[in-house]
Design a protein that fits this description.
With 106 residues, chain A is mainly alpha-helical. Chain A is built from four helices and two strands. Chain B is mostly helical. Classes of the chains: A mainly alpha (106), B mainly alpha (644).
Chain lengths: 106, 644
């Protein structure tokens, strides 16, 4: 670490940085929790409500089958939402914070 | 120059051993069928009535061997090319950070999709229907955690290993040492699972004796990693992922083509297949068909295999957060230039892996329909041959050139899968040993590039050697628990520690060491007393049942059929052998009811990390958090991590 002498504590108090990490944390945590709830719903439903999972929806395909497919779709949706939010919001903000940090450091 | 010659020599040797060993026809497959015979009484009973089943796959050895050699040759060329640009430690561990997000996405898919995913899930679906699909959700969902929590912060804060990230919080050598040991232990479990799986697969696919395949695969991997480093490993993984997608796509399209791409007609045919119906009846242990029960429809419903919801949730936790801390997956994020590329690579990997898993389950259903679950289980109890067999069928059937070609292609893809996963693992262990132990603990971070690369290569050779020896020693062991263990240990030790280091200001050395050590030990401890281990008394009790039934028949004056006599003899041997046995830790029956420890060990791991933090306070380390926090959020000073 060649520049270990930097005042990181001061840098961490830059308002833009605080905004960035707060927003990011809230966003990531919400997305992760929602995803996890959906994920654990599948084994719970399969284990405790087998009759519900057996109901046919399309031809011979039942709720259980479509629930599994839904999990795949949900995971892809999370990826799309996250990428979109990062590209349009977090990345530009990160750039601004970085600009401030490098200015402050010099 | 010497290096080049040595390389070619080893390659030639490996290829020769492959070619020679494949000549004799294989006696081993038959053995595994015998054990299958007694294990699943209900299913086998129903099979007996139908026509005799083939006990091994008839493949065209010439075509299969040529395909395997082509894979070895192509990957070998890549290794030779990549070896020219391996000068610094950064080149060796992370390909100098010069892999693009797109390439890395394919490589992650190649790193993550093991032979177990391809052959195993196809087999699972062919034997247990919709449960195969439900099973794939776990390993796939793990990428949500990787994407949201691990990928970008790790790229921003890390360099080569987990130890690097944790060292940003604490300069303590104890922390780095513990992180390195944890990476070595976890990767060794995972590696061992892969090696034993590789040995058994090669035996099944080519008829190569187990020991020869373990030594062959191991040697080949050592050569690949030491010569090619991360660059070669990455390209091998990319090519493997491409081949895997290609074979999955080809099989799925050929299969659905038969139904005019009408999924509903396809599943109708599956549910109406008399063989599948009979198989499901066996699984449900209905001695005679229950009137009005739609056994075919049952195959399309969940719960034939995965019955206990708690066990599934426990497994789900292990997958959901375990994969995120696997050292060889984490290492992939250090190969891209920045966080944006890391994000892109996870998204691409998610698309590839998701599509592939969906295709594999369709292939599994297709195998159940055309090959029949009975035939698949007659060849291999674990169902691993479902994908190669349906490939042969779709290509034109047994004995046809196109059928043999397609099957050989699928087998060769499975082989390339083993290569890609094992080399990624060896590289991860080598980084932990050489970078964490040697450079940062022994040499205090002062070691020249030449020396670092040299030590990393030596570490790769030693690790590979140990993996080969352990692989041979564990041939007869039930290795299923090793992979379970790897995921559970990572979920309960690495994951809490990574999460807290990245996001909790007060977290410190005490928390890191406590979390890593107690989380891991506790998870291992729970697995040791779980039903995943072998309990001889239980085997003895099952064998006793068979003996009793058969002897009762004899007493009643029924003359036993030939296979029944064999089953009786085997059961008697099993009984006397296991009657007084104890499990590995001296138990008669499991103490913990679930196969996967995660539901219990993950909270314990988190708790250990929190307690450790409060017991060993350290003001200075809290101050270091600001630096890590800024880095992981913004990627500040990332260039410092890549250039030297």
């Amino acid at each position: 670490m060649k520049e270990g002498r930097k005042d990181w504590a001061a840098l961490a108090k830059i308002p833009k940085f605080i905004e960035l990490h707060k927003k990011k944390k809230a966003f990531l945590l919400t997305l992760w929790c929602l995803g996890s709830i959906m994920f654990y719903m599948l084994p719970l439903c399969a284990g405790y409500a087998p009759e519900l999972m057996k109901i046919k929806i399309l031809g011979r395909l039942n709720i259980g089958y479509f629930f599994c497919l839904l999990e795949f779709a949900m995971t892809w949706a999370i990826a799309i939402i996250y990428t979109h939010k990062s590209n349009t919001y977090f990345d530009p903000l990160t750039k601004e914070v970085l600009a401030e940090i490098t200015q402050g450091a010099k | 120059m010497m290096n080049r010659i040595l390389f070619i020599l080893i390659m030639a040797l490996t290829i020769c051993s492959l070619a020679n060993a494949a000549e004799p026809s294989n006696p081993v497959v038959g053995q595994s069928v015998q054990t299958a015979g007694t294990a699943t009484t209900a299913t086998v009973a129903s099979v007996k009535s139908s026509a005799p089943l083939a006990k091994e796959v008839k493949s065209n050895k010439v075509i299969t061997i040529s395909m395997f050699m082509a894979i070895v040759f192509v990957t070998g060329v890549i290794v030779v090319k990549a070896s020219k640009s391996n000068k610094t430690a950064a080149d060796f561990y992370t390909a100098g950070g010069g892999i693009s997000g797109f390439q890395n996405g394919w490589a992650i898919a190649g790193d993550y999709l093991s032979a177990a995913t391809f052959l195993g899930i196809a087999g699972l679906t062919s034997m247990f229907g919709a449960d195969g699909l439900m099973y794939t959700v776990g390993p796939f969902f793990s990428f949500v955690t990787i994407l949201l929590i691990i990928a970008e912060p790790c790229r921003n804060a890390g360099k080569y290993t987990l130890g690097d990230i944790l060292s940003l919080r604490s300069s303590s050598k104890v922390v780095r040492g513990t992180a390195a040991i944890s990476a070595v232990v976890v990767s060794t479990f995972y590696l061992l699972g892969q090696m034993v799986g590789a040995g058994k697969l090669m035996q099944l696919l080519l008829g190569i004796p187990y020991n020869v395949s373990v030594v062959g695969v191991g040697t080949l991997m050592i050569v690949y990693v030491t010569y090619g480093g991360m660059k070669a490993t990455t390209w091998v993984q990319i090519i493997k992922a491409f081949l895997l997608m290609l074979s999955g796509l080809a099989l799925t399209l050929l299969l659905l083509w038969k139904f005019g791409f009408n999924m509903l007609a396809f599943y109708d045919a599956v549910a109406l297949s008399p063989n599948i119906q009979e198989h499901v009846r066996g699984l449900m242990k209905h001695a005679t068909p229950v009137a009005g029960f739609d056994y075919g429809q049952r195959f399309l419903e969940t719960g034939l295999l995965l019955k206990d919801p708690l066990d599934q949730i426990s497994l789900g936790i292990a997958f959901a957060i375990g994969a995120a801390g696997l050292p060889h997956i984490m290492m992939r994020f250090f190969t891209v230039p920045d966080a944006k590329a890391a994000r892109k690579s996870v998204v691409i990997a998610m698309v590839l892996i998701g599509i592939f898993m969906l295709m594999v389950t369709i292939i599994g259903f297709g195998a159940a329909l055309y090959i029949t679950p009975q035939q698949i289980m007659a060849v291999d109890k674990g169902g691993n041959m479902a994908a190669p067999m349906i490939a042969q069928y779709l290509g034109g059937g047994v004995g046809s050139i196109s059928g043999d070609l397609l099957m050989a292609f699928v087998c060769a893809v499975a082989f390339s899968t083993i290569i890609a996963v094992v080399s990624g693992l060896i590289l991860a262990v080598s980084a932990a040993v050489a970078h964490d132990f040697y450079v940062n603990i022994i040499k205090d971070g002062k070691s020249d590039q030449r020396q670092q690369v040299k030590v990393a290569k030596i570490a790769a050779v030693v690790v590979g050697g140990i993996a080969i020896l352990l692989g041979i020693a564990c041939e007869k062991q039930n290795i299923a628990h090793l992979v379970v263990l790897a995921f559970a240990v990572v979920a309960s030790s690495n994951f809490p520690v990574i999460l807290f280091s990245l996001f909790w200001k007060r977290f410190n050395s005490g928390g890191i060491v406590c979390g890593l050590v107690f989380g891991a030990l506790f998870a291992i401890g729970v697995v040791l007393v779980s039903p995943t281990m072998t309990y001889p008394k239980k085997i003895a009790a099952d064998a006793k049942k068979i003996v009793d039934v058969m002897e009762k028949k004899q007493v009643e004056g029924v003359v036993l059929a030939e296979n029944e006599v064999k089953a009786l003899e085997k059961a008697r041997v099993d009984y006397s052998k296991n009657r007084d046995g104890k499990s590995l830790v001296g138990l008669d029956a499991p103490l913990f009811p679930l196969k996967n420890p995660a539901i219990l060990s993950v909270p314990v791991g988190f708790l250990a990390a929190i307690l450790g933090t409060f017991l060993f306070g350290n003001r200075r380390e809290e101050e270091m958090f600001d630096e890590l926090f800024i880095r992981q959020n913004t990627g500040y000073n990332i260039s410092e991590a890549t250039d030297h």
